[in-house]
Write a structure and sequence with these properties.
With about 450 residues, this protein is mainly alpha-helical. Helix content is about 75%, strand content about 0%. The protein is built from 22 helices and no strands. The longest helix has 25 residues. The protein is elongated and about 85 Å long. It starts with 14 loop residues before the first helix and ends in a 7-residue tail after the last helix.
């Protein structure tokens, strides 16, 4: 373990894993079961750090199955459960991860506070990704309570910090998530923390900045923009000081870099939202260079996650890459990426991510597999798919500029669509159009 160094990771053919194998062989000859458990804990820990998720899960599972239940209960049982559930989560085998994590709480007597917290964090990460915000919030509270009097260790507190940040973003929005990220940066010195646990927090912070920068541009919110810009500088300072060891940490670094560059473009385009700025440039006959660079950055992140067999972050990176492709006018490239991302989200059972993918596809008029064509059932109104999407946004109370930002078109084009819609619906105002859409129940509950 010490030979693995500050990266806390080692691949299956490395020196540290060879030493662990030698220790295991010696322990087997002498019947030293507790040493065998220690070897399994260390092996699975280092393999998971290196992104070898299948091997990590198998090393933990093998020890759990072959060890006396009473010995597991009083020694390493809950830790082995964590070391099995964590790679299962990364691999997208979420139901299996939940079974392992839930079974550990029932099977092993009084797991340590640190172990209880980590089991809650793994569970909370899954419930959050599946859209159960109430359950995820309860997981956070339980984990936080377990760690209240525990000593600080990167591997215990930092995974919880990341979950707190992501929960704040999904539950309360970008402003709350900016505050949560800043609070965790104040609480923990990430620049001197173990990179294995610091990079995921930094990457989560960058995703918060990106969300805040995008919303600030649409809403012309200078306070939100300033908060995003300030947090950007703090995160960059941390990222510059962090080392990067192995492919898993490299994937987190690439995800951070892509989100950071994307947010920087949004902030530079303020007060106009970035997609609207790009769409306006496209209408004028020229597309800025930023979308091409962002497309490459997100593609590199997606490829890194694919290499690690981690479907959730891969799908998220593909979604962002698709937006970058649309921004440079590459609709076919966006379609390819969205069509790769959609089945990943569906296979995970992650409705929030799946809905985000579907929304971008609808706005760009991209058909996903097994998807019902947009606008079906309203053909008698004579609306095109694009006009139906514009009407959806008009009904939601959005202005032409806001519609342009959402649909990657110029405000002038949005205005033309609205005029055509009013004519086809035989109404004279946006309010009347929204009322008719409600009366016809075109879009369901608001």
């Amino acid at each position: 373990m010490f030979n693995a160094g500050p990266g806390q990771q080692a691949s299956s053919d490395s020196g540290p894993l060879e030493l662990i194998a030698q220790a295991r062989a010696m322990a087997e000859r002498r019947g030293a079961e507790e040493v065998l458990l220690t070897a399994a804990v260390n092996e699975s820990h280092l393999l998971e750090g290196a992104g070898e998720h299948e091997r990590a899960a198998e090393a933990a599972r093998r020890a759990t199955v072959s060890t006396d239940a009473q010995l597991l209960s009083r020694t390493s049982g809950s830790l082995l459960a964590i070391n099995e559930a964590e790679p299962l989560f990364a691999l997208g085998r979420w139901d299996e991860a939940l079974t392992v994590a839930g079974g550990a709480m029932d099977r092993y007597l009084a797991p340590s506070p640190m172990h209880r917290a980590l089991l809650q964090v793994i569970t909370g990460s899954i419930t959050l990704a599946r859209g159960d915000l109430a359950a995820a919030a309860q997981n956070v509270l339980t984990a936080r309570d377990a760690l209240r009097s525990a000593r600080y260790e990167d591997q215990h507190q930092l995974p919880l910090a990341r979950l707190e940040i992501l929960l704040a973003l999904e539950k309360d929005g970008p402003a709350a998530a900016l505050a949560a990220t800043s609070q965790n940066l104040d609480r923990y010195d990430l620049s001197s923390s173990t990179p294995r646990y610091a990079w995921p927090v930094v990457a989560a912070g960058a995703s918060v900045v990106l969300a805040a920068a995008g919303q600030a541009g649409v809403a012309h919110d200078e306070r939100l923009r300033d908060g995003a810009a300030a947090l950007t500088e703090r995160l960059r300072t941390v990222a510059e000081k962090l080392g990067t060891f192995g492919p898993a940490q490299r994937a987190w670094q690439l995800a951070f870099a892509a989100a950071d560059a994307h947010a920087a473009c949004c902030l530079a385009a303020f007060p106009a939202a970035l997609p609207a700025a790009w769409a306006t440039a496209e209408d004028a006959g020229g597309v800025p260079s930023e979308p091409g660079a962002l497309l490459q950055a997100w593609d590199e992140a997606a490829a890194a996650w694919a290499g690690l067999c981690e479907p959730y972050p891969q799908a998220r990176a593909l979604l962002d890459a698709a937006e970058a492709a649309l921004a440079r006018g590459d609709r076919d490239g966006a379609a390819t990426r969205l069509q790769q991302a959609a089945p990943l989200a569906a296979g995970l059972g992650a409705p929030p991510l799946g809905e985000q993918i579907a929304i971008i596809a609808r706005r760009a008029r991209i058909r996903l597999a097994d998807e019902t064509p947009a606008g079906s059932g309203v053909g008698e109104l004579g609306l095109t798919e694009r006009e139906l999407e514009v009407l959806r946004l008009v009904t939601a109370g959005q202005s032409n500029r806001e519609i342009a930002a959402v649909l990657f078109i110029s405000p002038k084009t949005a205005s033309v669509h609205v005029s055509n819609i009013l004519g086809k619906l035989h109404v004279t105002s946006r309010g009347e159009a929204a009322a008719k859409a409600h009366a016809l129940r075109l879009f369901g509950p608001a």
